[in-house]
Structures are given as structure tokens and as C-alpha cells.
Sequence to fold (123 residues):
Amino acid sequence: MIPLEAEYRIRFSREEMGLIAVIFGAWLMQETDLQEKQVVILSQSEGEQERKLELQIRELTLLPLNIKFQSVTEFQARGAPKNTVLVITTFQMQLPLYSPPLLQVRIPLPQAQRQRIRDLLES
Fold:
């Protein structure tokens, strides 16, 4: 911004610089067609363990995430909701006929699992 300010002999306030950064970031996201990624966490009760897992997943990336909870029985009967990019569970289970990538994880997430989730979300 300094070269722009110098060329046009203007000075941006901190608030204006912040607004420019937000608008530029939104433009970049639009240009790369960066959309919200839908992640499903399989649960049996939506308890504390699932909430901890959700928080850890949100901390992995700056991408906009839509994290939903789905019961294991519903997932096995109907599969994941449309547009789901990743299904995460802490249970061992059989997969339905079609499923987006499904990861079985431990809490807290080990570094290898954190990296694998980040790679799947950012690809």
C-alpha cells in the first residue's frame, strides 16, 4: 500500500487499511472459487468428545468449514449429506456403499491425522 499512497499522495487510516485487506481477501476467495467445505462428524450423542473434535478440526485450517454432526445409524442407512468432502469418526464401523473419504481418528488428534485432514480439506 505504501507505493500506492506515495504515487497518489494519499494516506490510508488503519480502519481503511483493514477494510482494504478484507475486501481483497474476499476477492481472492472469489477468484479461486474457494467455497465452504462440508465436514461430517459421526456421533452417537453429540457429546463433549465430538465438540472437542470439532474444535480441533476448525483449528487446522483457515478455510471456511461447515461442520455437521450425523448419527452413525443414519450415516450407515443414508450415507453422508450431499457435498460432504470429509467424514470423520472416532468409532470403528463399516462403510456404506458410497462415502466421501472417511477417517477414523483419536482425540486429541495426533500430528499425522491433523496433517491428513488438512491435506484433504485443502485439496
Residues 14-31 form the longest helix (18 residues).
